[in-house]
Amino acid sequence: MSAPEPLNPVPGGAAKLISCILPDDGSERRLLGWLRDRQGVIRANSVYCRGHSVLRETSARRGTLPEPTLVRLVSIVVAAAEADALFDRLYVQAEIGRPGGGALMMTPLSFATPFLLPEGVPNEPGELSE
After folding, report:
1. Is 114 contained in some domain?
2. What is the value of pTM for the model shown?
3. Per-residue pLDDT band at 94 (split at 50, 70, 90)
4. Domain hosting residue 89, numbered range
C-alpha cells in the first residue's frame, strides 16, 4: 500500500540560508534594499542581536563576558541554485572585508516555500532604498 498523495502540495524546493552579522550602522537597511530592488530577493529578515567579540577584538576579566555590542543579523533564504553567486555578491555589497565589517555564513535548508507579494503593494513609508 502506497502513501496517500497530499491534498494540497506546498510548492517549494531546495534552498540555502545566508546569514550576515553586520554592525548596527544602517548597513543592513541598505543591504535589504539592495536585495529587494536589485536582486529580487523578498525572503529576508533583519533583527537586533547582542554580539560578543563578533565584529572586533575585545577582552574581559577572568570569569566575565566582554561587553556586548549591538549588531544586526540579516537572514536571507535563496534557491540553492542561486545561493553561491548571491553569497559572493553579498560579501562585496555588505562590505564584509572592511575592519569590523561583519561575518557571512551559508547553510543548506531542506525545503523552503516561495512567497510572492501581490502586484501593486507599495513599500512602507520611510523605507530606505537605493
Report:
1. no
2. 0.74
3. very high
4. 23-55+67-109
| Torsion of the alpha carbons at 78, 80, 82 and 86, rounded to the nearest 10 | 60
Indicate whether 98 belongs to any domain.
Answer: yes
Who contacts 51 (Cβ-Cβ below 8 Å, separation ≥6)? 21, 68, 69, 70, 71
Please state whether 119 falls in left (phi above 0), alpha (psi between -120 and 50) or beta: beta
Number of compact structural domains in the chain: 1
Per residue in 64-93, pLDDT tens? 777 778 899 999 998 889 999 999 999 999
Residue 4 falls within a domain, yes or no?
no
Whether the per-residue pLDDT at 55 is higher than 80: the answer is no
Residue 36 domain-assigned (yes or no) = yes
